[in-house]
Amino acid sequence: MRPRWTSRARISLRPASRRFTTLGIETSCDDTCVALLTTSHSSPRATLPFHKKSTSDNRSFRGVYPPTALAGHASSLANLVSEALSSCPGVRLDLVAVTRGPGMSANLAEGLALGKGLSVAWGVPLVGVHHMQAHALTPRLVSALDAPAAAAESLEEIAPSFPFLTLLVSGGHTQLVHSRSLADHAILANSANIAIGDALDKCARLILPPDVLASCPDVMYARALEAFAFPIGEDGMGSYSPPLKRADEIAPTVSPHGWSLCPPLAATRRMAYEFAALESRVQSIVSDLPSISVPQRRDLAIDIMKVAFEHLVGRVLIALEEDPSLRAASTLVVSGGVACNKFLMKVLRSMLDARGYGGMRVVAPPVELCTDNAAMIAWAGWEMYRAGYETALDVTVLKKWGVDPSGKDGGILGVEGWKRRQA
Ligand code: AMP
Ligand code: ZN
Description:
The chain has 423 residues and is of the alpha/beta class. It contains twelve helices and 16 strands.
């Protein structure tokens, strides 16, 4: 168990203009995350006096192993909260925001139980946050953190304003979402089976040379795949040229090394994502090349990311072509761990430009806010609280919880447990 990163650059709890302080807790997977977020009802500016995460070491399982992740929360969470409170002497909590779902039940329960306890002990409201809503709202947090101290704009002007499009690309989800308002996020495309992060992690385990794999500091093998594919970073991505039309996009990627890769769901414009087949394709390519060289591995890494990312962006283009009303969303947010990938951003920007959407703004949160974190939970909790929502103390965690109001469970607000506060 080791703290992965911490940020205290923005400490500014000024008693004279006491701000609203939210404690955020995130435990849905293997990251134990705690944050203190200060906001104000009169200014769009937010600060993060405390933001820290501790990640259990799952490397020997080559992926997240739920009991190990749970033990990590049990040993780290209370200590992180204690550290947060003692790092800001005199802090007074106004709200506790904790991830209620979706995620691993036992892991969520560890966070929710402590969140309830803190809410009772401090006599402050609780908001049970939807993890995916929090990812989608993260760019609004980023602009609030970046707002100048004397920002005079109204809270309603926090960017991006609704509606906007979001690509949620993480280890557990791949979704194209139309975010129409705070709690109304319509899913336009979803992954049929495994998420893009999971698929790239699995491909990376096959492609990375054994010594590179062995030196990975965690189980985010896809991050290591990007670093391996582009050792000089973005400067090495210059040779990418986007498919100029759908026919080019669905043509197989043929390598001079002899393999070819077919884009997923090439024969259909159905709004869905499919990444499961990538791993088996890589498996068969690698077993056909018993003495695969490092340059071959590097080219395979680039090809697999190209195919996965063009599939991702291809569905964004289909959505925009089929429903012109979506073009009112002039911002495309990319969030979740895979959004850290600079080659994804290159493919996305290049394809949008090449296909007539050069005016669409693409924003991705900084790395520490792209992967799971508690700042986004605190922010989403605060946005919900400000809109009049609190969570009852008798709620339980939600392993599955849709984000789309037209879904089976009614989306974020469709589940039981919300209490509406009169403004
Ligand atoms: P999350 O589920 O949002 O915490 O994101 C974790 C997922 O993001 C894992 O599958 C990681 O391997 C993946 N990830 C992190 N960094 C990168 C990167 N640079 N490129 C691709 N995937 C990444
Ligand atoms: Zn996540």
